[in-house]
Protein 1
Amino acid sequence: MNSVQLESEDGVPLAVALSERVHWVGALDPNLRTFDIILKTANGTSYNAYVIRGSEGVAVIDTVKEGFANDFFARLESVADYSEIKVIVLNHLEPDHTGALPELMKRAPQAQLFISQKAQSMLKGLLKQDELSYTPVVTGDKVSLGDRSLEFLHTPYLHWPDTQCTYAPEEAMLFSGDVFGCHFCDNRLYNDKVGDFRFSFEYYYAHIMRPFKEYVVRALELIEPLPLKLIAPTHGPILRDRPQHYIQRYRQLSSPALHNELKPNQKTLLIFYISSYGNTRRMAEAIYQGAMQIEDVRVSLYDLEGGEVAPFVDLIEEADGLVLGTPTINGDAVKPIWDLLSSLAVVNLKNKLGGVFGSYGWTGEGVRLVEDRLRGLKLRVPIQGLRVKLIPTEDEIHECKAFGLELAQELTGARESRVINFADL
């Protein structure tokens, strides 16, 4: 049988046993098509919550979105009395996981709430209650349920600052929060029973976890050594078949690929441009030639008119420096540049080198506007953007080559410091 019984014959929601002591008490949202404005959900989503029973009490791990609280409480009541609940754990405080919390705390006032250290201020901001009893925890902290226990793993920024994972060692189960989850609703629940959800798993990683790769790697260092029979995320299928496969996939997605192609200490500089009449292109080619003078910098030149944005985002994520060339039209940079910049929100650009150049006809605001956006994306922009009016002269082409050389030197640490005249800015 492929089906999982989620309701009784008369339609009452039922808990689903993951083991003798652990049950799923979540809710399904099959009709959701957009999550948090930016994520598409072709199959809807699930709000996964769990109950684990020990000899000395019951723990509830996460809740559901407020509009699905009735399903959550019905399933919870099918396996536990509220008087038995000793522990409530929130791995993540986003409303789709905390919607039923206020009512749960009313029904089980004796339960102690456990959240991460970084969740404390966020909890009060979300629930708007001043008198909340909770225990903040960090990696290594434990709570006993008698013959079952819970251990906490601090995994911040996956994908909020407050996120953590909870491990049940006696069950070899990881309640992972949003990590290893995806927006995929299937009432068969388990990864070995549901439809093909690989695209949802990869899509979720790309839009939720990708900007925080360095934190993913840190979390994996805590998770990889754990004996695991099952991973129970807060969204999507429960991973009971080959759970280590999904951990390995996160490791692959979070590991840089370009480093295998580079020489030791080699840096990478990407130059993208779009050109109306060939003037910005001439500048780009000269900047490329200038940067190529530094042997330890691998320089690449791309015309945005001839490529899709998505592959360029992958290149930029692993590069050390990003230089953008744009003409100014109607007082602004052109749309392909803004399209590329808007796509970079899914990657971590902090402390990468940034630079901007472009040809203009009237006032040339485009370069300054793009510089401001690069700084907003947390790139370093230490060299003032280069602007040329209309067709670059031979002297201006030499300036472009010098600009490229200076950017490459900045990447390698060979650039000399200089005093900036603010009158030139």
Protein 2
Amino acid sequence: MPVPGELIAGALAGLAFVGCSLSNAAPTPSSGRGRRREVVVNGKRVKTVDIHAHCIVPEAAAVINHPLEAPGLLWSNLSERVAEMDAEGIDVEALSINPYWYRAERDAAAELIKIQNEKLAEFCAGTPDRFVAFATVALQHPDLAVEQLEHAIKRLGLRGLGVGGSVAGQELADPKFHPVWAKAEELGILIFMHPLGTRELEPSGRLKGSGLLTNTIGNPLETTIALSHLIFEGTLDRFPGLKICAAHGGGFLPSYANRSDAVIATFPNRVGPLPKKKPTQYLKDGQLYFDSIMFTGEAMRHLIAETGVGQIMVGTDYPFPWNKVPVDHVMSIPGLSDEDRIAILGGTAAKLLRIAS
């Protein structure tokens, strides 16, 4: 179903789509105005939900003179974005913004977040059948972040919380952030965690050279570090109702999580207070979720084996073509039941984000 022109014009105000800090990457080619692809599994129409799609609010970025990321990738026409979603078979995108404001002073951060969350809410209200959004907060000011989060969820109708993998060099597991996680747990919302890269490694030069290693390695590495701290520092134990979706398949952790179990037996006196469960168990128990940006069917099969089908959701990383055919990617994974595919394609995300089926 096409989006009416008047809704496009109203909802688009103040919102632009950008990607994962890859200013030299090529944009996703426009798919044109083709017929909307409807995803069907065993005769059943499935509502698909993309958990990982980027945008930016230019008015908010202007508060701290933050340059618009990858200006060549800004989408100025919502109809083009909807056409791409239609071609890909994506019914709903959950919009998030990579945090660039974690070093902002309190007053500026308050103004930025107010503008940002209100614009996100306005945009989603204009296109409610195609978009929902994660709230943003100023995590560097935890008391303010708690107020912002409650307002965004209860008053503005945003569906979850988007955070970075660290906060100006501080780990998410730092006790100073406990009030924010307590509020998220109380509200029963999903947190989408997207890495900002391991910037502390960059001055060493280890990530220079070919391969865009600041992103290729740096992004999944930060996710791995963040999740490991949340497990080993007891944050997930302290807040058992916390639900976090880690971008890019959870980084490197699911591929090598058994080493985290083994270190407890190998160096029992050096790991600190023990978590309540084996580290691998946290990947499976409904606190940690993962998107599907894993590139191959075998990688997805392994991720599912380590975490469980119920922990995986489709992610595209829009507008960058990391995962060009997300629906086909899921449909091609061997060994899944119809119910498994429906859960990954949108069932799990719809429940967590309160999206009507």
